Amino acid sequence: MSKVIVFLANGHEECEALIPADLLRRAGVEVVLASITGKKEVTGSHGIHVTADALAEEVDYDSADLLFLPGGLPGTTHLGESALVREKLTEFAEKGKKVSAICAAPSVLASVGLLEGKNATSHPGFEDKLAGAKVTGHQVDVDGNVTTGRGLGAAIEFGLSLVAQLVDKETADKIAAAIAYKG
After folding, report:
1. At a CB cut-off of 8 Å and minimum separation 6, what does 181 contact?
2. C-alpha–C-alpha distance, residues 144 and 173, integer Å
3. Catalytic residue among 19, 31, 67, 103
4. pTM of the model
5. Residue 123 and residue 68: Cα distance in Å, rounded?
6. Parallel, antiparallel, or unpaired for β 98-102 and 49-51?
7. How confident is the model over 3-31, as pLDDT tens digits?
8. Is 15 a catalytic residue?
9. pLDDT in tens, 44-85
């Protein structure tokens, strides 16, 4: 079974974090919501409280296949300021493991050099922060081990893309049909 670590910071965009997490869990992927705040309760950018599965510093990263950064503000800023997040992103990329981010969070991938020469997308207000990327404006871009999504409106497509990558396209298509998604 594949395993995904979703980094949560105060101010994350709730739907961008939880929709892909939900879709991945429907596909049988182990999803760990990992708080970078030092406590399990994390407050999203719209005041919704989420209880993380673990503190980020306690997670077993060796068994994980993919790291995921949801957007939202100031959540993206907090993710970018986290030494642990930056270290794990770099480590995963060096090992050829998958990294992903949606909305404003692809800017964090760019800040550690992971978008250099890659097709990537982000929220329109953050495209100028994708240093080194070939900015496409697509809803979702998959380029090698990097997946980026445009924003909340792309959360289902983004999540299904991760399912297709970690499980298979047939499973992603079955989930899309089960939730009446017509992407």
Report:
1. 156, 160, 175
2. 21
3. 103
4. 0.98
5. 16
6. unpaired
7. 999 999 999 999 999 999 999 999 999 99
8. no
9. 999 999 999 999 999 999 999 999 999 999 999 999 999 999
